[in-house]
Amino acid sequence: MQTPADTRIPMVLLTGFLGAGKTTLLNFLLRHPSMTGTAVVINEYGDVGLDHHLVEQAEPDEVELIEGGCMCCTSRGRLAEALMTLFTKAQRKQIPSLKRVIIETTGLAEPGPILSQILRAPQLAERFVLDSVVTLVDAANAGTTVEEIDIAQKQIASADALLITKSDLVDEAALTALREQLKGLNPDAEVYVPKKGAAQPDWLFTNGRRRPQSADFSLSPLILKADSIRLLPVTPGAPDSVDPWGEGPDWNDIQTFSLILDEPVPAWKLFGWLDFLRSLTGADLLRFKGIVNIQGQDKPTVLHGVQNLLHPAEELPAWPSDDHRTRLVFITRGWGQETVRNTLAYLQDTPNEDPLLKPATP
Fold it and tell me: Cβ of 92: how many Cβ atoms within 10 Å?
């Protein structure tokens, strides 16, 4: 059975710490012939950052026509409203055809809360679909931002694609080291190196290859390699490998690991465990994704989460292979791996009653 075409308008969330080069990249990208019909929503306070020959300034209730048939508006904290304004004006032919949207964040924004605005607004779900989170990383200042700044780490870990900017300001050895560092923070992200802002549109807009309901969707390499980074459960009754009240992992330690379940899991138990886990880890559960075998369902479910936000679960038309195990891959900070390990009993136990109502297995 052929997957029906998704007619919703694709969106890209463009992030990057202060000075990463978002404006330079957009100024180049919006001149590309294939980007006609693109809207840019500036999700920050203050003046629009695109240079003067593209756009002067747009008030929250205005849409400004910019070069190449593109549009720009500022949301100033009212993202859903700005997106609906764009959609309505396009429907009424008040602006050119709206084909795609780039949401540019301020350099100090965490992706999680912005994604929450997008994905939890029911009026947007029928009209827009999130395609990618793209984060720019400044090669010239990576030593400070990537290693020391909390917001920058969250932006990197949340990304589907990482674009290394200002690569001409560092030597090849430094660029190679930065690539490796980024892969350590987010091994699931595609990494590109645009020269002087010359990004390609398909680095951002993927034609659905990152969206489970698309015919072009494919499982991420990280999920496919889940066995090689598997978190092994603690033997029942054995002491924890790390004393939770003693010396443990560094709080800024970024960890990537997977959890594999051989048997189907009840939906209520899985989602209850994820809610419980997110409440314990907070924003330090930087990212997780996986393919899940839910009890009583023949088709697999794809999950994706960023910080405290769980994207809507999506069902694939069929299993991509004969491997029907649940595979969840996590990127966490600090105590994340220990928190997952210590809550496995919640997920693996099989009582008839809700595990939340009984003590955890010691």
Answer: 8
For residues 210 and 191, what is the distance between their CA atoms, to the nearest angstrom?
Answer: 15
Widest Cα–Cα separation across the chain: 67
Q: Residue 190: beta bridge partners?
A: 161
Q: What is the 3-state secondary structure (H, E, C) of 102-166?
A: EEEECCCCCHHHHHHHHHCCHHHHCCEEEEEEEEEEEHHHHHHHHHHCHHHHHHHHCCCEEEEEC
Q: What is the number of other CB atoms lying within 10 angstroms of the CB of residue 105?
A: 23
Say if residue 326 is exposed, middle or buried (CB neighbours under 10 Å; 0-12, 13-18, 19+): buried
Q: Which two tokens stand for residue 9?
A: 């308008």
Give tens-digit pLDDT for 70-81. Answer: 666 666 667 888
Q: From CA 323, how far away is CA 348, in angstroms rounded? A: 19
For residues 142 and 311, give the distance between their C-alpha atoms in angstroms, rounded to a whole number: 29
Rounded Cα distance between 130 and 121, Å, is 12
CB 165 within 8 A of CB 145: no
Q: What is the pTM (predicted TM-score) of this model? A: 0.79
Check whether 249 has a pLDDT greater than 70: no
Distance CA 83, CA 124 (A): 8
Report whether 343 contacts 256 (CB < 8 A).
no
Gap between the Cα atoms of 72 and 56, Å rounded:
10
CA-to-CA dists, residue 272 to 149, 153, 259, 277, 359, angstroms: 32, 27, 16, 9, 15
- Phi and psi torsions of 138, nearest 5°: -80, 110
Position 65 pLDDT exceeds 60 = no
pLDDT score, position 46: 47
d(CA 98, CA 82): 13
